Predict the structure.
Amino acid sequence: MDVAQVIELGRESLMIAVMVATPLLGTALAVGLLIGIIQAATSIQEMTLSFIPKLAVMVLALVLFGGWQISIMVDFFQRIFDRIPQLFL
């Protein structure tokens, strides 16, 4: 395996990680921002108030996007395992 293949594999790995993490992180960010705005408007500064809605929305996002995330990861790992025989040529 030469340097170009290693760099390509690393780049592809980072892109897959970003694609898989984006739905969960995006929903957590949106809900956190919304709750932060509500807390600022109502002067309620309870730190634990945002935990339950974030958790609920992240579970919902995982239910909605989980199948897609798993299929992306399975395809990526199949491509990696398909490359193994080429390493020894």
Summary: Residues 3-87 form one domain.
